[in-house]
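check these tokens.
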Amino acid sequence: MVLLNARSLNQFRLEKYVVVPLPKNIIGNGNIENHEELVAYLQQAKQKLQSNCRNITVAISQKQVSLQFLNRDEDTEYTEEEQVMAELSQYDSLDDVSYDYQNVSTDNQGRENLLLVNSKREDVNILLDAYTDAGITPTQMDVDILAVMNSAITWINIRQPDLTNKCIAVFNIDYNETQAIIMRHGKLLYKQEINLGYDHLMQSLRRNYQLTEEEAWDMLYNPSKPEDYNSTVAQPFQQQFIQEIQRVLQFYFTSANQESEIDEILIFGYGNNSANGFTDNIRQQTHIPAQQINPILLAQPGNSIEQAKLQQDSSLLTVAFGLAVRGL
């Protein structure tokens, strides 16, 4: 959970944040497998955050939604609503679907680009029931992968506006997996999930140094590491990750969705993990410039936030930051 305050569109203040690890048996493949346990952990996180903020944006997993980008010519005879309804005709009844759409961009020729998101209403209701039972009332719902995109767009707008119209590959490293996104000017061109995340690093640490999961997590963020950490743990993970990056790029370049060459690679979630030389290796093996970023560090931390702890946790907050920015 992330609580943001905004002085302007480009000035954020991180008032508070909370990270509560979930046991593996609560969420599976985007689905809630244990409602009562999830409610208990949501209540625990809410209590830790101690906020009365009512402007709450939550995420649904991309595994439970359909994302479409629809092109509309200026002189089309159909309204936006009619075009969206045609796309949703796959459902037997609109009572079975939750959907939303918005205009993402309009080009110089007046062609609109609409983003349509839809999901089974049952899946949305199951998620909302968990929040309701935890005493949380969302004002809006987003998709986790769109929250990652929102974090990327926010970072680009503030730190590197020259990338605004460029084709960007974003890799957000999460606990169990990595979300791979190729985007241009707010439009999702390609997405893929990579079965490689922090859990792989954790298992390598536990295996090589006979640690518990908690000890492995502490070592991952501790500046002082064993002498052979780089060669034994970090470099094999980085090389495996670069191979996955190359695989994603290959799929993108051979897909029907390819629109342009990739100008920059952004790595979210790996900036503080002794990743010396990581972006150099990516650049050498893909011939594309690369940067390591944690977007939430754009925000000015509140007085109660410990800087060192935020640096440690920042890699886990990309989705929550993207949701909070949308709610501002």
